[in-house]
Amino acid sequence: MDNKIIIFDTTLRDGEQSPGASMNTAEKLQIALQLERLGVDVMEAGFAAASPGDFDAVNQIAKQASNITVCSLARAVERDIKAAGEALAPAKHKRIHTFIATSPIHMEFKLKMKPDEVIKRAVEAVKYAKSFCDDVEFSCEDAGRSDLEFLKEICDATISAGAKTINLPDTVGYRLPSELSQMIGQMVQFIAGRAVVSVHNHNDLGLATANSLACVSAGARQVECTINGIGERAGNAALEEIVIAIKTRQDVFAPLYTDIICKEIYPTSRLIASITGIEPQPNKAIVGKNAFAHESGIHQDGVLKHKETYEIISAESIGLEKNSLVLGKHSGRHAFKDKLATLGFDLESEALNTAFEKFKDLADKKKEIFDDDLRALVAEEITKIPQAYEIVRLLQSSCNNALASASVSIKHDDEVVSDSALGNGTVDAIFKVVDRISGVSGILKDYKVTAVSQGKDALAKVDVKVEFEGFSAVMGHGLDIDTMIASAKAYVGALNSFLKMKRN
Fold first, then answer.
1. 51: which residues sit within 8 A by CB, 6+ positions away?
2. Are 233 and 311 found together in one domain?
3. Three-state DSSP class for 12?
4. What is the pLDDT of residue 310?
5. How far apart are alpha carbons 468 and 474 in whole angstroms?
6. Where in the sequence is the domain holding 409, given as residue range(s)?
């Protein structure tokens, strides 16, 4: 049996199903390129049949990916598989991932199909997927609650039809590590090397990582996971936890290994958080803000004397350089480019020039610039979609026991339009002005402000979730030293994303 653990990242598909984590094509493409730098083996770029936007994202990623295998999810229906095949066509390495539910509860109440009908559908799906690419993965949705003998029967049939990977997900996060270990062990023995056995565990009981590691020990050789553990409901198994656990506990897992470049873990985590607006909880393993913080005096003393007294991994090993100060206002373009390269950004000349101008502008306003400031600034720039509307100027006023007012100037079609409004607070007033100028009414569903780095002049990052004209809510992000300007940028960013999605 191969000792390499294949890392299958589904941040762009399952991760995007986190409430409020929707991403536009530019954002998905940037994440895809970073996942490739991270050393991910297979990237599930999306669900091509879900929408024109999803199809476009999968297709654009397929065109630009180099060594990574690009994958699209597809239900076991012809329309889905065809869309996946067409979207993936430009990819150097491609995979279609088709699935159907196999648990009694899903077959009876969701599919309303008999077990033999499900097997027939699964076989047809795999055979049709094979007409588009050789690498086909088949998933038994809700395998964790499926009958073992039925799992053997359907997996045997789909392997015979051409599936090269068999995925056995704990779709609702129901099983305990001991239970999954037993199930996967039996399936590995049954499949006997005819296909790679994969697992995809959800975190509903907080066991996704533990379950994934138990499955690896039982013989699974592909793990499906997401950056920061994001995903629908309680999320997925976290890539960074699985990878670092295997690396740290070689006394248990040797000779198993992954090809993940660990120094890219933290930059990848920050990029995902920046784009989705979903910050890892402070005590999140590996990438949380407190993961390497020691408040207890005893702990601090121990770490100062010898790091390994309380740190089993180092911050540097995942690419986190604590409080790393970077360039200042006198820094040149070459030094700026070199610094970005160390942070994992390789910008083309036009994007580099724009980012450098924004950096110089920031350096004039902010005394100290940190790595996280640069990450946020550059990520904002390279994931920007065409700006139908752009904030030019903002004036605001508020006082106790009175309505706040905001005057906003917005550039649209090379014309600057200005207007004012009153609101229940400055943010409300700003958003009302944007609605008035654009003629598009938005309903704010979520609003969040975070400090990008540290200090009194820290950059404010604002993430908003806005519903326009009854369509699905979209995300918008804004970055500025001034929180109100960042809020205005975020709302306008959401508006621009909505208009682009509407056009598509």
1. none
2. no
3. coil
4. 55
5. 8
6. 390-503
